[in-house]
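Hi R.,

Here are the chain sequences for the assembly we discussed:
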Amino acid sequence: MLSLVLRRLALSVPLVIVVTALTFALESLAPGDLARTILGADGTEEQYQALRRDLGLDQPLIVQYFEWLWRALHGDLGQSFFTKESVVTLINARVGVTVSIMLGVLVVCAALGIALGVASALRGGFLGRAIDLLSLVGLIFPSFWVALVLISIFAVTLRWFPATGYSPMHDGIGLWAASLTLPIVAVSLHSIANVAKQARDSMAEVLGRDFIRALRACGVSEASIIWKHALRNAALPVVTVLGIVLVGAISGAVFVERVFVLPGLGSLAVSAALDKDIALLQGVTLYFTLLTVLINLAIDTSYGWLNPKVRLS
Amino acid sequence: MSVTPSFARRLLGRPLTLIALVWIAFIVAIALFPEHFTSYDPLDQDLLDIKQGPSADHWLGADALGRDILSRIIFGARDTILGVVEALVVVAALGVALGLTAGLFGGWWDALARQYIDVLQSLPTIVILLAVLAVFGQSMLPAMAALGVLGSAGVARVVRSATLAVREELYIAAARLSGLGETYILVNHVLPRVIGPVVVQLALFAAIAVLVQTGVAFLGLGVAPPAPAWGSLIYDAAASLNDFPWMLAPTGGAVALTILAFGLLGDGLRDASTETWTRPAQARRGAYRAGPAPADLPTGARLSARGVTIVAGDKTLVENVSFDLFPGETLGIVGESGSGKTLTMMALIGLLPPGVVASSGMVAVEGRTIPLDDQRALRSLRGATIGAIFQDPMAALDPCFSIGHHLEEVCEAGLSRTERRARVAAALAQVHIRDVEEVMRRYPHQISGGMAQRVGIARALMKSPRILFADEPTTALDVTVQAEILELLRMLSRERAMAVVMVTHDWGVVADICDRAMVMRHGRALETADVFDIFERPAHPYTRALLAANPHAAEPGHALPTVDDKLATMKGAAQ
Amino acid sequence: MTGSLFRARGLRVDYPLRGGRVLSALKGVDLEIAEGETVGLVGESGSGKSTLGRVILGLTDPTAGHVLYRGEDITRASRARRRALASEIQVVFQDPFGSLNPARTIGATLAEPLLIDSSLGARDRLKRVDAALAEVGLPFDAARRYPANFSGGQRQRIAIARAVIARPKLLICDEPVSALDLSVQAQVLNLLNDLQKRLALALLFISHDLMVVRHVSHRVVVLYHGDIVEQGEAGELLARPRHPYTAKLIAAAPIPDPRAQRARREQMRSELALGGNA
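And here is the predicted structure of the full complex:
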């Protein structure tokens, strides 16, 4: 098991390097000069050169990158080009919101998706077709559009939830949960049916296997067969899909944080992109990549726990 | 899948796919020639008509600046289609090239490709796109190209698996051994099979491209206002959400319908590419006929089956089969594949595969008479009255649980942990497994086929049933292991005074272990007799022909007599 | 005069395992096949019999040893040489469903081995295909149909037709009847015997089934864990086996005659080791 974890961590290093180097390299491809862009048209030559030195732009790209990497390993991600605040500080203040959304999406998709999928595999018929339909609906409407519709119905018309804004946990769990409910629903809708579909297909496939028949022939109870044996074997593909859902939730969070005006990493990333605040964007990208690494690690360890073949070889 | 005329017919024959194709063509048309579809200029403001619902003048209403929504949607189609094309070109070129070469050449290139795919697929798309847009924010092209690069990983993965799968096919090896060159094989054997999954992936990716393009525009990136990109339109709708929620509908609808169209197209392509598209047989419930209560049940029989008839849809698989099983004997059910021998036995414990049902018949055991549609009663027979072992001993074990667990869970309830373990150890010792403790800890993938079958036997006998059903238990095993397993079965059935039903196609097994045998063919029982009689005085011509055609009984040097299907007579060597 | 058509000398195939260990599928095997002779290769799972077949066909490279065809060392023959050899050494696989491309007609598949001969035009190829189909007892409208329309036994006969259409000298049959019903096995075995006599083919018949092998072979070779433990004339080997493993194999295959089988069982009971960890 330990070797599994170490292996995944080892594989993650190239991932992080690729992503951070990529964003670095992108900056060098920018049309126009960053310092010029920041200064605007009316900066003097002196200011321009000073800014370039300030931003470290006078050094070769590779050197810039390694300097950045070195500082990053020490917990310093530089300063935002525009607000001059520490990138790390800016990000840490907002990580909680995004992670809350992602975890919320995971719980909702897993619980509802698996429940629906298993029910459909066992009962079949109408429920199966309903899932197919729902998966289609969830897939074709963009999450931000769904978010807008939810706001229109539940916030503007019914006034059950706030339309925008985030209420931090220390102001009250109830308000906190209310401010995150619609965003989580908007992102989850896209994926619940996918999870249900995978759960259903997996269960149906496993229930057709020989060892299920052998268990029945031995008189093992149907409940034990379904909830202990079939579910365990069907879990692997479902876990894979849940991993994809989580990574997708990062993208979903970006849009949903914009729509609901939530102070999370996603909206920070968009602002950074709109403002061309490269330093900030690099920091946010790094955090997102680390999140992805964590998700993949969680999936790998789940595999190991669920499947003895993976664990023991 | 090869692109044959029948493929095109199957594709266009599905109404949903056809509609999807029409819609996509329509969107492409309005993207190319928007002026022909509307007379309004998308930028035209009419400040007298703001935030209007659908009307005669404005079919889909007018927005906050009085601009005609329908026209804006029409003109916005171009950006969407352009974005899709840009992304598709990149994803197709990169993904297909990478996947094909990785699958074909293998080696270090494949290892490199796999790394590339892994890394790319782990990246959160929107984050990379934001980085790209931060630098190239004015135009959608770099973002769509970046999307193409990110998506190429998924396409490459699918193409690679398809290529590998085809490469591993036996007929590719056969083609090579026929002296064909690599290029010929690539073009004639590999590519036709790979094109199918590729096209499906591209259609599905197009759907994603629409979604992403809309999202980027919604965020205010990649397009310059007031260009009517669909994403920007949704943003406009968001701005007027409080008092003009209607605008959400047409804007979201256009996007959704286009994404749906590509998705349906992908599904249609996928379905059309399966060669034999047969619907699984639908089980017809309630078609059970009880039949007259049998009056001729022999008193000494431990189990009697009467009138077993099994159907799948409107095909009859087994017809009116009856037999008795007496204590201490082993009855063989002999036949070739398709004879219905396994189904007959399985029906008696209610374990028929989905889509297959017993439409008539009953089983009498231990004084009870159970009609074959009474699932509940049949279920109560399993384990305690009738045990079962199967053909593939490895597949009969749950790969997620240890051997010890498999056996413990079949123990009776109410025993302590130590008692259960002791019972399990005893059961394993009884089937002559040494190192019982070690084996109990192991998982199914860590033991051999022979041992797996011993475990299967131990498990079947845990509740001490008086009857054992054995479905070709040695077919998948080496002949030396088979001999041991047969001897084990013989010994156990004698010690426990069990009656055994043994389904087999092997006359040697019948001769070895069976006391009586029933010969089946095409779902019918042809004859049932004492084993010596079956071999020495076979009554039915088919039995005679089958016995004679057995290579194991052959005279070397002479041609084997064969069974002629139509006439069920013998050709060739003398009786 | 029948000379040695084919020789394998000291063939060794090792597969590296994790942890530096090595799995020896073949441990130094010598084999010889004369022209027009059928050699039966018998072994159970893990004996290396399929590996041997693959090495001969060039599908697997041996770790050591040589494969000689008509005196020429073809162990590591170039791809071009292998293609040229395709007209001399052919194969029939075990799986009648996987060995034919389901998307191509029977006619197209049968014509493929003929494509390498540039002297044959399309019409000649068609005629040869029809002749081949007749040779294996299939109607010649089969050429227009797809593999899905045929049963397992028929597909195996098509595979045999493809193997012999270019008139090879050596045919490797890797468990050709193991996946077929008993009654169909008889047809295919008769066909192989027939073709062998008519075309003066040398056959390497690989199987786990000793009785089937005996039926078609002149000589039998017994393989056990990568080593040849015994070889000899078919009838002689079965009547008087010299190696204990051969004896075990013979004893284990039940005789399809209840009286004889029961008698043998009594005799063998003490000798049959009831191995617990098999």
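The mean pLDDT of chain A is 84. Residues 222-260 of chain A form the longest helix (39 residues).

Let me know if anything looks off.

Best,
T.
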